[in-house]
Records
---
Amino acid sequence: MRTEFVKIPPSVLARVTDVHHERNMYAHPNPLARAIFWQRLAVGFRLLSRRASAQAKLLDFGGGSGAFLPALARRFPEVSIVDKDIDDARRVASHYALDNVRLCEFDVTNWEDPQLYDAVVAMDVLEHFADMSVPQRFFAKHLKRDGLLLVSLPTENALYELGRIVLRKSKPADHYHPASELVRCYRDRGYSLLAHRYVPRLGPCALPLFYVGLFRKAV
């Protein structure tokens, strides 16, 4: 399986995805914003690839943008996406002819699936749940014991707020929790932190805008 990260070219994103959708920062007109969001995925991909089996069955939780899909589908033999809106992911999968992808257009609170997954990725998703127990119950049900959980989370610190000012964006009403609160919550529930990185990285230095972490679920 392919182990290097796959970044969707801007021309492809503009053609096959809704570039005006709030989630599609990967096609943002500001090149710095685009670079930071792609770097989150690339850093997370490296963390996951070092720990996950090449045969792992993977679930992208809330991955309807499809941005992570080409990299994940070329690294793992089975990839599922569950999200309320998967239109962009569907078009990305079609464009790249990804035949090992299963697209599930459901609210995660009522998705029924008998499968257990070896790894789940949740990139900039967990902060959108006011009730943190909702994704926790989902992972308890669908992630194997000893399974891997990859997350990307906004730090919501002063530097992050400055970034919003630069991009002329206001804080979304559904950004309920900063990274520090979510990390503490999952560790308190028995998830062990295997590795983490801050993004963006500028040479040897990292600016703490996003927290990218890889956890292992308790056995």
Note: The chain has a mean pLDDT of 93.
---
Amino acid sequence: MIDEHSFKAIYSYCESVSDSPSDILHELYRETHLKTLAPRMASGPVQGRFLSLFSKLVSPTQVLEIGTFTGYATLCIAEGLAENGHIHTIEVNPELNHISDKYFRELGVRDQITSHIGDAKTVIGGLYRLFDIVFIDAKKKDYSLYYDLVIDKVRQGGYILADNVLWDGKVYAGGKDATTKSLMMFNQRMKDDPRVETSLLPLRDGLSIMRKK
């Protein structure tokens, strides 16, 4: 198993040889660390560049993000939107909205992003459209529920991405807490679900990619 020091060194190397995020994204990442209690919840430069590239490959028209936080991942995904593309992003904590909204405006994509403040379980039911990409990065114990709510709202050939599915390694180390057990169940369920093709990447804290057949 790679120790924490080695992991940080590998991560830093990956960041150094990947494209750099924009100055505005750098500014947002810095403000997230200065003004929030859990800044590691932001996707960060390496995963952010992956999300940007993935979005550019798909060129989505409709995106759903479950868990905005301060909007870092939202803006990375927005870099690949089709010309008329739109992101619906859901955040339960209204106190974070002023940060994400500020940077949505600075990058000139405010009109392409609809911010929903509230419980995702309620908001998702009111979204009547087919999505090209769904990015799940909210309450970990509810991942299976989020999946159930969105699977029929994803077009054939569309994608569902789920973040933090390695949960600091607890999922393969046999963690006994409720969140770890929920993520273990979710990961196995994604592997077994015949409706999707699944690949779990050891990117940052684990990123699972499901393609709807």
Note: DSSP finds nine helices and seven strands in the chain.
---
Amino acid sequence: MKRKYIIISVVLFLLLLLAVFSYGYCEKRCEIGSVASRIMREIDNSSTEECVIDLQNVTDFEWDKAVVVSADFWCAGYSEETISELWGFSYEVPKGFRSGLIFLNGDEIVYEEYYAADIERSSEFNVSIYPMPYYRILKLDDCKVVGGEAEGRYSILVE
């Protein structure tokens, strides 16, 4: 009988430990970066339902090209070689279902952020790109995106 309680206690302890680590992992994985935070602020301060956001105004580093990527792009399963051909620079594919912003100066990545995407529910910040291939390369002189907010969820759209 005593052994049964010890086993149950150990199992409960391991489940609790797993829950704590899973929560910490999700919190880190779902973290909103500084560019997304500034975009969200621009949306909040906008007097229109959809606002046009110039990516130059939400960054504090030098860049000349931005790659905007929706989570759907990563689902296509492109190889790193194919992505390098498409984008014109070498890039290591991130793990997981996420959207993101990658900023370059020349051919060097100077900053990148990723936002956890979830098929069942909307993330706090999301990137939508239509139509396919679900990524856009924006130059410094044409780097506007449309931002919006609905039910506490923010998104940018690039067409």
Note: The CA atoms of residues 3 and 9 lie 10 Å apart.
---
Amino acid sequence: SGFPFVSGESVIGAITIALENNLIEGIEGELLIDTAAGLFRAAPRTSGAHVVGVAVTGVPSFVHSAGVPVKIGTRKITVDIAFGGEFYAIADSEAIGIPIDMAHAAALVRMGREIKDAVESTIHVQHPLDETLKDIHGTVFTGAPHAQVDLRSATVLDGAVLRRSPGATGTAALMAVLDAMGLLLEDHQFTHEGIVGTTLQGRVRGRQETGGI
């Protein structure tokens, strides 16, 4: 899927390997992870010699553009563009008409690529001087949740890769959209399910204003 600025799943995996194989020792509290997107913080939770969880705090997430109309063939759809460490186009799978399951993987990949290309073209026309959106990292298709989760999604990354995980940066971007809509309750643990059933949990750690955002 190209060279992502940061991968939350990779941070979790790298820290797990490093701690369980004693590559780093004496860690208490948070570890600081330098990434191309900025500083990430990770707090591992251990049980004996094993890492049983890692809480990752990323860079500030935000909604860049809400309800952006894009043309896909003869159809017009709307997407939200948000940042969670990478930029994502977020679309409603029901409005597009593609279910979120592995049986429709090829259709999701094809539509994800078309939406990414359409969003980049649309933003270039509307904001020709905005260099931040010259490369959308992926398309997140959202769908109705099953029991025990708040939202399901499937993410198609740059390079036409269907992500198995819900995705840490994608989860952060999605949470930014939900928070802007007033749908993310204060201190609520948001549970996000990916296409193969694995989940990530997220919380809002704080809010700040930068440059009017």
Note: The CA atoms of residues 97 and 108 lie 10 Å apart.
